[in-house]
Every structure is written in C-alpha cells, then in structure tokens.
C-alpha cells in the first residue's frame, strides 16, 4: 500500500444520499479475479448512457453529460464529496478498488457504512466524516468556485479550504498510522502469532466442537 | 456492574488481544468462501508466500455466478456460458484444491447460497465467530453466532492469521413484542424494522433481535430477520439461543458429535443477554401493527404496508429525503399517492439468501397451489437456496405445484438477487422479489425491484399486481407461520 501523503486535490460533489456499493461498481464488473482496472467502471450506471459490460472499451461508450465526473471542471478530482450513509449495501471491496483506481484518495461525507469504511482504509483511501452542516457548506463552496481544491493533511487530522479555514476531523490512531506508513495489516497481525496460538489452544480446550478433526 | 449482552459475551469469548489504539484481534471460527470475493485474497496469500492458518475453519461453495437452468447445470462448470463467470468459478475450484479447503462444487447436492449452506450443514454453530466476504453473513447471527460480512482484504487476513482486526460495536436491541398477524412473516417483520429505523439506523451497532414475536419464529424465519440487519446498516444481527436453535442443530453434518453434544448445548445455553444488560439503543415494535410489507423505492427503508400508498416526496421535511424520494419515484416509474395494490408486476423472483429455504418455498407453494401465474407476468421463477432445499421441496411435491402454476423451477444459487448470472430484469421491469436489496440496477440495468415475502411474491404472480395475502379467500397460506 502506498503511503498517504498530504496533498491538494480537486473536489467533485456527488449530491445524493445512501450511495450504495452497487451504484459505485455494478455487479457485472465483480467477475474479475484481479484487484485493478475497476476505475473505468466507477459509477458505471450514472456515468455512461448505455449498459456496461466487463472487458469493454469504455472510451467508445456514450457519456452522461449531466454526471458530475464527466464535467471538465472536475477532471482529475481526488476528493469526492458525498452525502450520508455513503457506501451502504454489499461488502464488495471492488467499490474502494474502483474509487482508488479512478484516482480518488479521499471521500468526505456525514456518515459511511461500516464495511465500506473498513474496506476503504485497507486500500489507502481516507474517509473523512464531517457534520451535515459542514458538508452542506462544502457543497455550496464547490458549486460556487471552479477548480475548488482542498488541502488534506492526515498527519494533523485536518482539511484546509482555499480560504484558509481549518476543518479538523477524527480518525482512529491505528488507521491513521497504517495509512501514513502504507502498512500491510497481515504482517502486523502476524507479529502477534504467539498470542494467537496461545488463544487458539485455550479456545480449543474449552470448546473442542468448534474444531473439526480434518477438513 | 450491569450484565453482558449476547454480543459482549461473544466478543469476550473471541478476544485475542486488545490493543491500546482501540483495535482488537478477534479469533475467527468459521470462514465461508464463494467465488466473487475470494480470488484476490488467495492471490494475495500466494504473492506473500503465506499459507492458510487453519484449513478446517474454511468452507467454500460457488453461488453468485452459477447458472440456474436445469439444462446448463447438468453440464457442471462447462454449462457456464459467460467466460468471465466461468473463470471465476474455476478459480475457486483451483484455489480450494491447491490449498486443501473443503468445497461443495457446482453440482454437489450440498452446493447452494453460502448463507443457506452454512446453517444447513451445521457449519454455523452458536458461539462461533463467522465471517464471509459477503454482507449478508449477518444471517448466521440467528444462531447466537457473531457473524458479519467482510471485504476481500479481510478474507485474506482471516485466511492468513485466523483473526480479524476489529473494533467493538455498540449494542442495540430491537424488540418485536406480541403476536404476528396471519400472513405476516419474518420478512415483513424485518422490512418493518428497516422502515422504522432506516438504512443507517444500525450503523456502528450489533443489533440483537428480541421479544416474543422474534422468539416465536422458526430458525429459518430468524435467519431471514438477521440476514437483513445489514439493510438497517448493522453488520451484525443476533438472536439469543433457545430450544428452537438447539433443536435445529441436532444431527447436522458439521454439528458436534455425541460425546461433545451435551457439553456444547450446556455452553450454548449461556448465549443470551443477561437480564440486566445495558443496550446503547433500544427500539420496540408491536407485532400486531405489522402488515405484509412492500418496498416502493430504491432503498430498503422505502417500504410500506400492503394497504398503504407510495408517499408524496414533498411530504418529507428534510430536503435530502425529498430529493432521494423524488429520484426513487422517477427511477421506479411510480406516482406519489399511488396505491401499492395498483403496482403491476412483470417478473417474480422467489429465492436469495433471505428467502430460499424450505419454509419459504412451502409458503409460496401454498399460495400458488391450483392457481395460474397471470398472463401479464413475463417470468416467474423459484430458485431454491441449496441442492438439499431443492431435493426436499421435490420430495414434498412443491416443484410440481410451482411448475403447474407456471413458475420456472430452477437450480440453486444467488440468481436474480444480484443478477450476476443470466437471471436479470430488463429496463423498466417491475419485479416482486423475495431478495434483500432494491437498489437501482441491482436486479438488472434499469430494473425495478419490490421487496416482499415469499407468500406476497406468489400472490403477486397470480394476480399480476400486489395483493394482500391476508385477503385471499380460504387460503391456508395465511397460516404460513405455523408451517
């Protein structure tokens, strides 16, 4: 995983509540056995006017001109501004894979679904939760200013607006540390291998029926 | 000090290590695997030269991609016409073979939807932690197991370490008290709960379902309720262990054998919330107030009773709600204040991890018996949840009832719940579906899903539009609860 560094990025607004993971990446693209290449199909049903198929050359497909990510002013956006309960529904990690592959590093919303929240951090995407009124204000500022960018500073847990306003956010220390250092969870957990083995022995002695003789 | 909730007990029994930063390592007893969310996890193991920690904790079956017509399934994997789907199913087979993980392959009679297969085999037991790369893993909480959906990175993490990195959730209790009316099922109960608390109402919580109406449900009904906890935002749904739980488990292939059975049962009896346990949030519904439910919109919270009508978006005070309701009505092709019973259907889907078990099929068959699917219905299909459910239904003659009524009788899989295989809705088609999500495009590009119970779906198939199952003349389907 790449280290998460401070950056200034263009903000794209997606003004819709309860954006589900089916909408982020429709099911036909879940047939891939890879982790990459989902970016061209991010928000496929909103972004294109036809029905997408896996493996298709998307450069030939008709774009929906009304969709925010197709508008020139949001080209190269790295911050997605969204509404409440973003990422609800299916556990598909293809959703953060698609966001990351498209180029998003950060999503800001009043709330996120739990599984999506976990999946995003495991793929180097920072999710920032701000209160509804702050998100409302950001939507208004993005609408009013072409090329609106935010300065995202994870180390100090803050976002700085073009006018210099500092918006602080909360993220737990472990997730912050993993993102900043680009750490692999599995390697970290295996440092506790002895503790896991000790627990497993005790657990098996107490509840042997949870373990089968052989698979 | 107050007592522990069921969730607290399960958490404490599996806590390997609590870290200072608030995260914890939780030991995982069972991981269910399917073809869609596992290939990248196996690839990750391979690239890092890691081996699965404990093979016997894993059980795999292909379900999302498999075709459901009898002809295609007769050919095994080669019956999968879509080459991309075929690669995914073959990759699961190859990975399970390479690592030595038990798999019920496409034509194994035990194959089926992971959330039907696990409990059916006794591979889901009370007191277990159960994970799967699928959000409907909440289903298994019906057994007093701590079960939740995880992403693919976590699937790999569990395979490599037998643990999950987790943070403790908050406790929420949803009580449903009283007696359910005739014709009102577990599906209606959970849809009514989601309608009340909203799709984010349970975010950050483990929901324990309790109360006399929940206790009166069969294990299959309880699974239907827990299955949709995620549609209320909660990764975990739970129901306390009682006699119903224990009676269901006896003699299942993966359940404890004779010498361990008594000890296991004694242990399971503790899997209830203490009387003085404190919940962070509590909600109560009266069973008598719940009528058969129908979703009208594009989120499971957009649901109402069969006697209701499609809401007027501008009746909502919140602007975000007004916008999402307006957008939903436009997508669904419905009018504000339209009666639910006036919604006409094009397709009917009876299946999914929510409602494809034998009791669901019995309920639907009672309504369909001796009747005919309306001419206006283009396709009505019944997809059993597993090969064993299918066999049981055939032994009871349910397949004949469905076929004679004009339904298609299919082979097990996820099918039109998420339309990864050939079973899908066309643009603009309305479907009465016993599945769990009515998101835009979920059942096919431009498709319009209405979530209902199996009896309501069958009744809609016969009438061609929604009808109240409670009003069907001399229909013993209204006694489905006792089945």
From TrEMBL, chain A:
Pfam families linked: Aconitase_C
The record ties this protein, via SUPFAM superfamilies, to: LeuD/IlvD-like
Q: Which domain of life is it from?
A: Bacteria
Which chemical reaction does it catalyze? (2R,3S)-3-isopropylmalate = (2S)-2-isopropylmalate
Q: What is its EC number?
A: 4.2.1.33
Keywords of the record, alphabetical order, are: Amino-acid biosynthesis, Branched-chain amino acid biosynthesis, Leucine biosynthesis, Lyase
Q: Where is the Aconitase A/isopropylmalate dehydratase small subunit swivel domain?
A: 1-132
Q: In which pathway does it act?
A: Amino-acid biosynthesis; L-leucine biosynthesis; L-leucine from 3-methyl-2-oxobutanoate: step 2/4
- Can you tell me where the transmembrane regions are? none
Molecular function GO terms recorded: 3-isopropylmalate dehydratase activity
Quaternary data: Heterodimer of LeuC and LeuD.
Q: Which family does it belong to?
A: Belongs to the LeuD family. LeuD type 1 subfamily.
Report the function annotation for this chain: Catalyzes the isomerization between 2-isopropylmalate and 3-isopropylmalate, via the formation of 2-isopropylmaleate.
Q: Which PANTHER family match?
A: 3-ISOPROPYLMALATE DEHYDRATASE SMALL SUBUNIT (PTHR43345:SF5), 3-ISOPROPYLMALATE DEHYDRATASE SMALL SUBUNIT 2-RELATED-RELATED (PTHR43345)
Q: Can you say what this protein is called?
A: 3-isopropylmalate dehydratase small subunit
Chain's gene name: leuD
TrEMBL record, chain B:
Q: Keywords assigned by UniProt? A: 4Fe-4S, Amino-acid biosynthesis, Branched-chain amino acid biosynthesis, Iron, Iron-sulfur, Leucine biosynthesis, Lyase, Metal-binding
Under which pathway is this protein filed? Amino-acid biosynthesis; L-leucine biosynthesis; L-leucine from 3-methyl-2-oxobutanoate: step 2/4
* Chain sites annotated for binding [4Fe-4S] cluster: 353, 414, 417
A GO molecular function annotation here is: 3-isopropylmalate dehydratase activity
Q: What class of enzyme is it?
A: lyase
Cofactor annotation remark:
Binds 1 [4Fe-4S] cluster per subunit.
| Record field: catalytic activity | (2R,3S)-3-isopropylmalate = (2S)-2-isopropylmalate
According to the entry, every stretch annotated as the Aconitase/3-isopropylmalate dehydratase large subunit alpha/beta/alpha domain falls at: 8-464
Cofactors per UniProt?
A: [4Fe-4S] cluster
Q: Name one Pfam family in it.
A: Aconitase
Which Enzyme Commission number(s) are on file for it?
Answer: 4.2.1.33
SUPFAM superfamilies given in the database record = Aconitase iron-sulfur domain
Q: How does it assemble?
A: Heterodimer of LeuC and LeuD.
Its biological purpose is as follows: Catalyzes the isomerization between 2-isopropylmalate and 3-isopropylmalate, via the formation of 2-isopropylmaleate.
Q: Which NCBIfam families match?
A: leuC (TIGR00170), PRK05478.1 (NF004016), PRK12466.1 (NF009116)
- Name the protein family: Belongs to the aconitase/IPM isomerase family. LeuC type 1 subfamily.
HAMAP family in the cross-refs: LeuC_type1
Return the protein name: 3-isopropylmalate dehydratase large subunit
Q: Which organism is it from?
A: Vreelandella neptunia
Q: What is the lineage of its organism?
A: Bacteria, Pseudomonadati, Pseudomonadota, Gammaproteobacteria, Oceanospirillales
């Amino acid at each position: 995983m790449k280290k998460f560094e401070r950056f200034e990025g263009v903000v794209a607004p997606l003004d819709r509540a309860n954006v589900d993971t089916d909408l982020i990446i429709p099911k036909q693209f879940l047939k891939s056995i890879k982790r990459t290449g989902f970016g061209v199909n991010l928000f496929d049903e909103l972004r294109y006017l036809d029905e997408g198929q896996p493996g298709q050359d998307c450069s030939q497909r008709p774009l929906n001109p009304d969709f925010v990510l197709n508008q020139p002013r949001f080209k190269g956006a790295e911050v997605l501004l969204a509404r409440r309960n973003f990422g609800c529904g299916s556990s598909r990690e293809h959703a953060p894979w698609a966001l990351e592959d498209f180029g998003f590093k950060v999503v800001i919303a009043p709330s996120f679904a739990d599984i999506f929240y976990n999946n995003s951090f495991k793929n180097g995407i920072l999710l920032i939760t701000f209160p509804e009124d702050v998100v409302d204000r950001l939507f208004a500022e993005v609408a009013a200013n072409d090329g609106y960018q935010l300065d995202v500073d994870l180390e100090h847990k803050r976002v700085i607006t073009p006018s210099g306003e500092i918006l602080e956010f909360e993220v737990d220390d472990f997730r912050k540390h993993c993102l900043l250092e680009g750490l692999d969870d599995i390697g970290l957990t295996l440092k506790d291998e002895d503790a896991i083995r000790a627990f497993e022995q005790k657990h098996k002695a107490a509840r042997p029926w949870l373990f089968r003789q052989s698979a | 000090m107050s007592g522990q909730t069921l969730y607290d007990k399960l958490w404490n029994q599996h806590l390997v290590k609590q870290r200072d930063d608030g995260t914890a390592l939780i030991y995982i007893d069972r991981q269910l695997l399917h073809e869609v969310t596992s290939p990248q996890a196996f690839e990750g193991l391979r690239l890092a030269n890691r081996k699965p920690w404990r093979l016997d904790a894993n059980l795999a079956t292909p379900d999302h991609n498999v075709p459901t017509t009898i002809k295609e399934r007769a050919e095994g994997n080669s019956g999968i016409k879509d080459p991309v789907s075929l690669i995914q199913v073959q990759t699961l087979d190859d990975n399970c073979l390479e690592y030595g993980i038990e798999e019920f392959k496409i034509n194994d009679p035990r194959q089926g939807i992971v959330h039907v297969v696990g409990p059916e085999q006794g591979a889901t037991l009370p007191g277990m932690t159960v994970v799967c790369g699928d959000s409907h893993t909440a289903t298994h909480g019906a057994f007093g197991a701590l079960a939740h959906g995880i992403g693919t990175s976590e699937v790999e993490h569990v395979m490599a370490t037998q643990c999950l990195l987790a943070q403790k959730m908050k406790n929420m209790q949803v009580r449903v008290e009283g007696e359910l009316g005739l014709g009102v099922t577990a599906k209606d109960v959970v849809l009514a709960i989601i309608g009340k608390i909203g799709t984010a109402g349970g975010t950050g919580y483990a929901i324990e379902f309790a109360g006399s109406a929940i206790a009166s449900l069969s294990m299959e009904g309880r699974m239907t309720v827990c299955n949709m906890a995620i549609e209320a935002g909660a990764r975990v749904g739970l129901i306390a262990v009682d006699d119903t739980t224990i009676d269901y488990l006896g003699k299942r292939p993966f359940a404890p054998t004779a010498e361990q059975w008594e000890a296991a049962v004694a242990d399971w009896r503790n899997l209830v919330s203490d009387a003085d346990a404190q919940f962070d949030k509590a909600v109560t519904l009266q069973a008598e107030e719940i009528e058969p439910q129908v979703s009208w919109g594009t989120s499971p919270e957009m649901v109402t009773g069969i006697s209701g009508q499609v809401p007027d978006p501008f009746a909502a005070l919140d602007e975000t709600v007004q916008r999402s309701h307006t957008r939903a009505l436009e997508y669904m092709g419905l009018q504000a204040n339209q009666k639910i019973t006036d919604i006409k259907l094009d397709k009917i889907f009876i299946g999914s991890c929510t409602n494809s078990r034998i009791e669901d099929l019995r309920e639907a068959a009672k309504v369909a018996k001796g009747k005919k699917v309306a001419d206006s219905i283009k396709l009505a299909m019944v997809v059993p949840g597993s090969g064993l459910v299918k066999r049981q239904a055939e032994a009871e003659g349910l397949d004949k009832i469905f076929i004679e009524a004009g339904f298609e009788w299919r082979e097990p899989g996820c099918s039109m719940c998420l339309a990864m295989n050939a079973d899908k809705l066309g643009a603009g088609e309305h479907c009465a579906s016993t599945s769990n999500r009515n998101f835009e495009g979920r059942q096919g590009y431009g498709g319009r899903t209405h979530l209902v119970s199996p009896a309501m779906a069958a009744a809609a198939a016969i009438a061609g539009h929604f009808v109240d199952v409670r009003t069907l003349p001399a229909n013993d389907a209204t006694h489905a609860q006792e089945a």
